[in-house]
Amino acid sequence: MAYGELIVGLTPIRAATVLSVFAVFNGLGRPVAGFLADRFGVVWVMIVTYTIQATTLLLFHTFAVTLPTLYVAVAFLGWGFAVTLAMFPTLTSLCFGTERLGSIYGMVFTAYGFAALAPVVGSRIFDVTGSYTPIFVSTGIMALI
């Protein structure tokens, strides 16, 4: 986790621990997201989550500058990832019907696959600007959209 090492001054072991926090919130967040969606609705859970995620990303460069605040920020982002992967199939079936879920969700998941280019683009932006701020702000705006 280059951000943690460069900005927060973490050792590689501490940076790996931060990534573990993300993984725990991502993994355990999926069944919790399902429970909350059953109780409050898929769209409501997604709106609240993406608002939190966008806020976290927009403020990341000023908020996540110490180890404790970095833990909080990556926990929120892990939760956002959990909600995305847990809710997108349900939302797709709600919008397009279960009879078209297989074909439509394949396109949704393909779009998710294009996100694999984000680290490459983010790395290039960092190389050009020397800052993570444009990366976090642009991803925060995308989360709002």
Tell me what the structure shows.
The chain is an all-alpha fold. The chain has one domain. Helices cover 87% and strands 0% of the residues. The longest helix is centred in the middle third of the chain and has 30 residues. It is globular.
Helix content: over 70%
From the alpha carbons, calculate the radius of gyration and give it in angstroms.
16 Å
CA-to-CA gap between the ends? Answer: 26 Å
User: What number is the mean pLDDT?
Assistant: 92
Using the alpha-carbon principal axes, give the shape.
globular
- How many beta-strand segments? 0
Please tally the helical runs, counting DSSP H or I stretches of 4 or more residues. 7
Number of domains: 1
Give the DSSP E fraction (strand runs of 2 or more residues).
under 5%
Low-pLDDT parts are none
Multimer state: single chain
Q: Give the ordered list of helices and strands.
A: HHHHHHH
Secondary structure class reads: mainly alpha
Biggest sheet overview: none
In short:
This protein has 145 residues and is mainly alpha-helical. 87% of the residues lie in helices and 0% in strands.
Features:
mainly alpha; 145 residues
Secondary-structure blueprint of this entry?
Elements: H1 2-8, H2 12-40, H3 42-63, H4 67-96, H5 101-114, H6 118-129, H7 133-144
